[in-house]
Amino acid sequence: MEFLEFMGQAAPYIVAVIGAGTALAVVATSRSTLRRTLEAFHDREERLRSVLATVPDAIITVDDRGVVTAFSPVAERLFGYGPGEVIGNNIEMLMPQPYKEEHGGYVDRYNTTGERRIIGIGREVQGMKKDGTVFPMELAVDEIKLGDKKFFNGFARDITDRKHAEKEAREQSRRLAELRNELFHVSRLSELSQMGSVLAHELNQPLTAITNYVQASRRIMERESIEVPDRVNESLDKASAQAVRAGEIIRRLRNFADKDEGGISPEDVGAVVREAAELGQIGQGSTGVKVDIQVEPNAPSVLIDRIQIQQVLVNLLRNALEALAKQKKARVQIAVTTQDDGDVGVAVIDNGPGLPENVAANLFKPFLTTKSDGMGIGLSISRSIVLDHGGDLECEPSDGGGTTFRFSLPAAKKDGAKNDI
Amino acid sequence: MTSDPTIWIVDDDETVRDSLSALLDSAGYATETFGSAQAFLDGHGSDDVGCLLLDVQMPDMGGLELQEKLREQGSDLPVIIVTGFGDVQTAVRAMRSGAADFVEKPYSETAILDSVQLALQTQVEEHEAHQTAQQFIELAGNLTPREREVLDHVVQGAPNKIIAYELDISPRTVEIHRARVMEKMQAKSLSHLVRMAITAEIIHPPQG
């Protein structure tokens, strides 16, 4: 404990005490009073010191020139200095460039203008350890006036971990946003592709009938030697050519959508499933549904278009969450297992009310939906994605109620298979 | 070929069946239509001549399955696969099962008529080739063992002297056998004999 005593000949005596990061002014009228006061203060100082020792912040006191007058043990640990190494030096030694150089200017400016940039405000700054390591810290500074002398107390906290976590979180949300965009894009394209397929089938039939009828009419007139103006024959030819053209347009639409196929590559099935589960729960609010993911530890990598398969998973999970909306103890389980044939089986199991029979029968047909806001092609798209991966999407009642959707994904490399990917 | 060919149309869409039938009828073909693969299996005779137009997407049994079923049953009727959804896998599967052609809906009338005509023509040619082969094998049965040996050498293109050496007989004797082979096989010329032999798959055409 250091006591700096400024004692005059006449009362009042003024004593300034600077201890472990604290400054106090004691005013006393006699030496005995002063002594008692000092003793009382000593006790409080001890208590205060023990309290301060538990404060996780580094506490640094400097005078109005920036010279360090107190440096707490936490500060010593934080900056990597030994006891007493910092006291008496300028605070600049704890700062990296360019702050080290500029600090004197900041102090001068404050001393002349009184303009506060950090004092009483606090902000993120950079500190430099004894070994030169620069780290982010949060610094709060208080000003203490003792008579005409000014001291500054700094409370510093290392925020490296927090910064790191913040960065991770930013990274995570950026990645999720990216994934959502990708999924959205792919789902639009898949819908387009699926629409193209459906249109191709539904519209090509009547278009075919049109060309057939038109050309039959023309040939019958020819065969029966019925005289018609050339213009009629030309028009009939043009009519059927237009029907063929309409078919071409549908075909191009489908081909266009089909061409945008993502890459097939080996993927860690656990990571793919977990990410999809995360995506599937975004924007669903707190559903109260427990989503439980079980991935067999030795499940092999799968050879898939990640985005497309995640779209299937998101779709199945969302369907399950919707089905479970009013359910108590609602639970969705996503189970990944290795099948007997070496491929990977994925099951999305809910304990909801199960599917009504008439819905189950038409489950994968496009444009059939139980939802008021859907196009009814989600499951049909999901199924065509799974089919493209060489599997099939199957639906069955879960054990003990609810619905289970299952599909398999090709293992990137089967045990015992000789061909490397 | 004793009867006129019939074109069987199998499509679950009634207007497509009816209009295609109208088109083929206008082009002078006899047609029969079926609303499902099963209806065709139940309704057509086994030794018919003609060609099948099968739609790929039909409930219960699609055109490709019907085609495969017919092949399993030993039918060699030419099949034209018609689809409103032409993807590579379907085309490959159809061709692998021996489809004569693969046509995407909607088609121009020339595409479907050309396809039908080609399928029927191929069928006629195959039928004729089959008969030629049958006849060749039958006639070859009348040859003596020595004549048969001479035939085998002749159709491989061996000159008389080589045949004589190989069979250890005189070139003159080879000539006599050869004349008798031509006569018994009803061959108008050496090239005719070789062509028949190729058709009957006694020898293989030169590679390349």
Explain how this protein is built.
The complex is a heterodimer of chains A (421) and B (208). In chain A, strand 2 (13-18) and strand 3 (23-28) form a beta hairpin. Chain A starts with a strand and ends in a 12-residue tail after the last strand. In chain A, strands 5-4-8-7-6 form a five-stranded antiparallel β-sheet. Chain A has a five-stranded mixed β-sheet with strand order 10-12-13-15-14, covered by helices on one side. By secondary structure, chain A is an alpha+beta fold. Chain A has four domains: 1-54; 64-142 and 154-158, Beta-Lactamase, CATH 3.30.450.20; 163-259, Helix Hairpins (Orthogonal Bundle); 265-409, 2-Layer Sandwich (Heat Shock Protein 90). The longest helix of chain A has 64 residues, at 160-223. Chain A has helices at 31-54, 73-79, 99-113, 160-223, 230-259, 269-281, 306-323, 357-361, 378-388, and strands at residues 3-6, 13-18, 23-28, 58-63, 68-71, 123-128, 134-146, 149-158, 265-267, 290-295, 302-304, 331-338, 344-350, 394-397, 403-409. Chain A is elongated. Chain B has 208 residues and is of the alpha/beta class. Chain B has two domains: 6-126, 3-Layer(aba) Sandwich (Rossmann fold), CATH 3.40.50.2300; 141-199, Winged helix-like DNA-binding domain superfamily/Winged helix DNA-binding domain (Arc Repressor Mutant, subunit A, Orthogonal Bundle), CATH 1.10.10. In chain B, 55% of the residues lie in helices and 12% in strands. Chain B is built from nine helices and five strands; from the N terminus they run E-H-E-H-E-H-E-H-E-H-H-H-H-H. Chain B has helices spanning 14-26, 37-43, 63-72, 88-96, 109-140, 145-155, 160-167, 171-184, 190-199; strands spanning 6-10, 30-34, 50-55, 79-83, 101-104. In chain B, strands 2-1-3-4-5 form a five-stranded parallel β-sheet, sandwiched between helices. The longest helix of chain B has 32 residues, at 109-140. The radius of gyration of chain B is 23 Å and the shape is elongated. The model of chain B has no long low-confidence stretch (mean pLDDT 86). The chains are: A alpha+beta (421), B alpha/beta (208).
